[in-house]
Automatic annotation (TrEMBL):
It holds the Pfam family MraZ. Belongs to the MraZ family. Gene3D superfamilies: Transcriptional regulator MraZ domain. The gene is mraZ. It comes from the Bacteria. Forms oligomers. It is found in: Cytoplasm, Nucleoid. Residues 5-47, 76-119 form the SpoVT-AbrB domain. The keyword Transcription applies. Keywords: Cytoplasm, DNA-binding, Repeat, Transcription, Transcription regulation. This is Transcriptional regulator MraZ. InterPro entries: MraZ (IPR003444), MraZ_C (IPR035644), MraZ_dom (IPR020603), MraZ_N (IPR035642), MraZ_sf (IPR038619), SpoVT-AbrB_dom (IPR007159), SpoVT-AbrB_sf (IPR037914).
Length: 143
């Protein structure tokens, strides 16, 4: 499970050092792809295969499902971290998420997310109020 917030930096080659706590799960390979809210989703190979299998269940007749799957999969890149735990983020994904040197990596349960640090800070500021006001109707059984 991916938890926490980390602030590594991208190097000049567009590489990111994975948080140490994530390396066991991602060390043998991972998939990077476009995430919603202009971040990059980071999945283990196993989790990406599970998500893909769920997508395959969507009806081919659904335009919205076809559009989502096209955008999601066309941006996907399978990567293997090097011995130092670095992974290269393809330039197309860096551009999509607006990444420069300052990035924030967050744990989101079954995936990690890579954000531009300023964008993450703005998103978090905006959503923290709604977070404190969330009730059972949004997340049944949690409260």
């Amino acid at each position: 499970m991916f938890l926490g917030t980390y602030t590594p930096r991208l190097d000049e080659k567009g590489r990111l050092i994975l948080p140490a706590k994530y390396r066991d799960e991602l060390g043998n390979g991972l998939v990077l792809t476009r995430g919603q809210e202009r971040c990059i989703y980071v999945f283990s190979q196993r989790e990406f295969e599970r998500v893909h299998e769920q997508m395959r269940q969507a009806p081919l007749s659904s335009r919205q499902a076809r559009d989502y799957i096209r955008v999601f999969l066309s941006g996907a890149s399978d990567e293997v971290p090097d011995k130092q735990g670095r992974v290269t983020i393809p330039s197309s994904l860096r551009a999509y998420a607006g990444l420069d040197r300052e990035v924030t990596v967050i744990g989101a349960g079954t995936r990690a997310e890579i954000w531009d640090s300023a964008a993450w800070s703005e998103y978090l500021d905006e959503k923290e109020t709604a977070f404190s006001e969330t009730d059972e109707e949004v997340l049944p059984g949690i409260f």
